[in-house]
Amino acid sequence: MTARFLLTSEDATRNGLLKKKIIHYYIANGDATIAELCKEMNLSIPTVTKLIGELQDDGYIVDFGKQETSGGRKPSIYGLNPTSGYFLGVDILRDRINLGMLDFKGDKVRIEENIPYRLENTPAALEQLCTVIDDFIRRLDMPKEKILAIGVNISGRVNPVSGYSYSIFYFQEKPLAQILEERLQMKVYIENDTRAMAYGEYMQGIVKGEKNILFINMSWGLGLGIIINGQLYYGKSGFSGELGHFCMFDNEVLCHCGKKGCLETEASGSALHRKILERYREGSSTILAQKIDEKEQVGLSELLEAIQREDVLSIEILEEMGVNLGKGIAGLMNIFNPELVILGGMLFQTDEYLLLPIKSAIRKYSLNLVSQDTDFKISKLKERAGIIGACLLARSKILGMI
Ligand SMILES: [Zn+2]
Fold first, then answer.
1. CA neighbor of 160 nearest in space, from 344, 397, 400
2. Could you tell me which residues come within 8 angstroms of residue 13 by beta carbon, excluding any fewer than 6 positions away?
C-alpha cells in the first residue's frame, strides 16, 4: 500500500495544497457540500469533486449522504472522518508528563496525566521522554501509521520552524525535532509550552470569538502566549512571549536565564518556593516546615497543597506575587490592547488569592481606556491546555495552517 496524503511529498504540490485547504475548511466550518466548498474556495465543481474523491480514497473525508432540502436536487454532505488519523500531544512539566491523543476532528481519544518524570537537561532525560512516549503509543494499541504527527511542548526558547530547542535538550548540532523524529520514527513538531497552551485555549477552551488574546502561564516559571488577529505570534525566531525574563526588579536575585531582576524571580512557582524558604529561615512559620527541615521535595504540588490548607505564609507571598504580576500584565495591556487576557498555569488553581491582587494591580497600573476593553478569564482547559494545544498544533502544522 502506498503512503497516504499528508505522509508523502504530495503536500507541496498545488493539488496537495488545495487538499489541505479543503481539510482546513472542514475543521473551521464543519460539514459541507461540494457546492459550498466551490464557492468558498473559488474552484470549479469538477476540480473540487476530483479532490474530494482523492481525500475519500485516503480516508480523510467521508460522504454523509444526501441532505434533506425542500425540493430540488439533494446534494451530498461531506465531512472529516475522525478515525482517519490521530495526533499525539506531549506536555513536559518539571516533575511529570501529560500525554494525550485527539482524532482527526479534534475530539479526545485518550489522555493520561501525571506520568512520573523528572525534567533534567540531560541526554538520559531525553531518552526517558522517548520511552514514555513509546509506552503510551504501545498502550494505544493502534497501528503507528495512524498517528500522523506528534506535538511536543518544551519550556524556554524554542524555534518551531527550525526545530531547535535552545533552553532544554540542546546537546547536538541537529535540531531536537529531528532527533525525536529519528528516535520515534514519526513526524514531530516542537513548540514552546506556553504558546501551545494558548493555542489549545484558543481552539477548544475559553475563547469565544476573540482574536487578540494574551495567555499568561504561571506555573513553576512564567510565560506568555500571544495571539494577534487569530494567529499565534512567534516573533522572528519563535522566542516571543518571554514575559518571565522581563527585567522589573532591583532584587539581586539571579534568574535561571543568567540575568537578575526578572519578573519570574518575583512572580512564579519557583519564586514562591524560594520566598517561602527565605521567610521560614528568617523566622516565619509555615505548614511546610517539616518538609523543609527534613529536606523532602517541595514542588509545585506541595506548594498548591499548602495554599489549599490555608498556609498563611504561602498565601501572603502569593498575594505579593499577584501584585507584581498584575503590574506586568498592566504594562502588556497598554502595549497590546487585547480583547481577552487568559490566566492559566498551575498557580491559577489558587483562584481568588492570586486573582484579586492581580485585578487590583491591573486597575491601578493600566490605562483606564485600555482596561475597559479587556476581559479576564481563567483558563477553561486548565492542566489539559498544554496537551490539547500540542495535538491541535501538530494537526495545524501538518496541514500547513501555521
Ligand atoms: Zn530571567
1. 397
2. none
DSSP per residue, 111-176: EEEEEE----SSHHHHHHHHHHHHHHHHHHTS-GGGEEEEEEEESS-EETTTTEESSSS--SSS-H
Q: 210-378 in CATH: which number?
A: 3.30.420.40
Task: List residues, by chain if needed, whose CB lies under 5 Å from ion ligand 1.
Answer: 245, 255, 257, 262
206 Cα–ligand 1 center, Å: 29
pLDDT in tens, 336-390: 999 999 999 999 988 789 999 999 999 999 998 888 999 999 999 999 999 999 9
Q: 302 by DSSP, 3-state: which?
A: helix
**Domain 14-83 CATH (choose: 1.10.10.10, 3.40.1170.60, 2.60.120.1440, 3.30.70.100):** 1.10.10.10
CA of 248 to the centre of ligand 1 (A): 10
- pTM, rounded to two decimals: 0.95
399 φ/ψ angles, rounded to the nearest 5 degrees: -90, 0
Spatial CB neighbours of 332, under 8 Å, sequence gap ≥ 6: 214, 224, 243, 338, 341
Q: Is 3.90.930.12 the CATH classification of the domain at 85-198+386-398?
A: no
